[in-house]
Design brief:
mainly alpha
C-alpha cells in the first residue's frame, strides 16, 4: 500500500470517528431532552392523581368554618383532628366498619382460594368435559339475569337480609379463574410431570407446587377482590333493607352523602351530653363527607403499595397466553 493510499485510509477513519462523535453528542442531547420531558410528564401526572387525596386530607384536619367557605385548597389551616374523633358519635358507623372489614377479609380469602383451585382444574385435559365447563363459565361473563331476577334468586335462596349474601355470590369469579388458568399454563409442565412420576396426587401438586408459584397472580386477584368488597354498597342497598345492622361502610357513606336530613337525624340522637361546638362540628355535613371519604380510602391506600410488585408481575404473566 502506497503512502497516498495510507493517507486516504487515515482520512476516512478520521471522518468516521468525527461522524460517530457528532451523532453521539446529538443522541446524548436527545436523551437528555427525552428524559426531562418524560420525568416532567410523570411528575405532573402523579400530582394530578395524588392531589384529590391530599385535598381531602387537609380539609379534614382544617378549621371546619374555613372548609365550609372553601378556603382550604393547598395547605391546612387551623389544624385539628376532632373530625376523626367525632366520627365515633355517628350511629352504627363502627358496626358498619366491622361488617365491611369482615366481608373484605372473608370474601377475599374465599375468592382467591376458589380462583386458584378452579383455575388449576381448568388446565387439566383429563377433566370430564373440560371444554364444556370452561365455555359454560365464559358465557356467564356476557349474560346475566338482571337486577330483579337476581334479587328473586337471592330471596329464594334465603340470602336476603343475610350476611352471607356479601360472601357467596362473589366466591367464583370467571375472569379471575381465566387469569389463573392462563398463568398456570405458562408454568413449565415438567414440574408437574416430575412430581406426578414421584407419586404426587393432584391435590399435592396444587398445594406444594402450583399454589406457591401462583403468588403473583393470586396477589393480583386478592387486590381486585379486596377493593371490590371494600367499596361495595349496592348489595347492601338492595339485599339488606330489613337489616340496618348489616349495612356496609360504603352504604353508610352513601346515606350520608345523599340524604342530609337523615344524616342530621342520625347524629342528633348521638349528640347528647356534647358541647354546642362539638355538636356543630358533627352537623357539618361537608366536613363529614370529606372525613368519611378519607377514612374509607385509607385502608386500600395502605395495602396497595405492599402488593404492587405482585400486582404488576401477575398482570404481565397472567396475560402471556390467550
Amino acid at each position: 500500500m502506497t503512502r497516498k493510499e495510507i493517507r486516504n485510509e487515515a482520512k476516512k477513519e478520521k471522518i468516521k470517528e468525527d461522524s460517530y462523535a457528532k451523532n453521539r453528542t446529538i443522541g446524548g442531547h436527545t436523551d437528555v431532552v427525552f428524559d426531562f420531558l418524560n420525568y416532567t410528564f410523570f411528575i405532573l401526572f402523579t400530582i394530578i392523581c395524588v392531589y384529590p387525596f391530599y385535598y381531602l386530607f387537609i380539609n379534614t384536619i382544617s378549621s371546619n368554618g374555613l372548609v365550609q367557605k372553601g378556603l382550604v385548597n393547598f395547605y391546612p389551616r387551623g389544624i385539628h383532628f376532632d373530625n376523626y374523633w367525632n366520627l365515633r358519635q355517628v350511629n352504627d358507623l363502627s358496626n358498619a366498619f366491622l361488617v365491611t372489614l369482615s366481608r373484605t377479609l372473608a370474601g377475599t380469602a374465599l375468592t382467591v382460594a376458589a380462583s386458584g383451585l378452579v383455575g388449576y382444574l381448568m388446565t387439566k385435559q383429563e377433566l370430564w368435559h373440560r371444554k364444556f365447563w370452561y365455555r359454560f363459565m365464559v358465557v356467564t361473563m356476557y349474560f346475566n339475569a338482571g337486577l330483579i331476577p337476581g334479587f328473586m334468586n337471592m330471596q329464594l335462596l334465603g340470602l336476603t337480609n343475610n350476611y352471607l349474601v356479601y360472601i357467596i355470590p362473589g366466591i367464583v369469579n370467571v375472569f379471575n379463574i381465566m387469569m389463573v388458568k392462563t398463568y398456570i399454563e405458562s408454568i413449565p409442565a415438567e414440574l408437574e410431570e416430575s412430581a406426578s412420576i414421584d407419586g404426587a396426587s393432584y391435590w399435592t401438586i396444587f398445594v406444594k407446587i402450583i399454589w406457591p408459584l401462583c403468588k403473583p397472580i393470586l396477589a393480583t386477584i386478592a387486590i381486585w377482590s379486596a377493593v371490590g368488597h371494600w367499596n361495595s354498597f349496592q348489595d347492601s342497598l338492595i339485599y339488606m333493607s330489613a337489616q340496618p345492622k348489616l349495612y356496609t361502610l360504603q352504604h353508610r357513606l352513601y346515606i350520608y352523602l345523599n340524604t342530609t336530613s337523615n344524616l342530621q337525624a342520625l347524629m342528633s340522637n348521638s349528640t347528647t351530653g356534647l358541647s354546642e361546638a362539638t355538636r356543630d362540628s358533627l352537623l357539618n355535613v361537608k366536613v363529614i363527607q370529606y372525613t368519611i371519604s378519607m377514612v374509607t380510602a385509607i385502608p386500600i391506600l395502605l395495602v396497595y403499595p405492599f402488593m404492587q410488585r405482585y400486582f404488576e408481575k401477575g398482570i404481565m404473566l397472567g396475560a402471556v397466553k390467550g
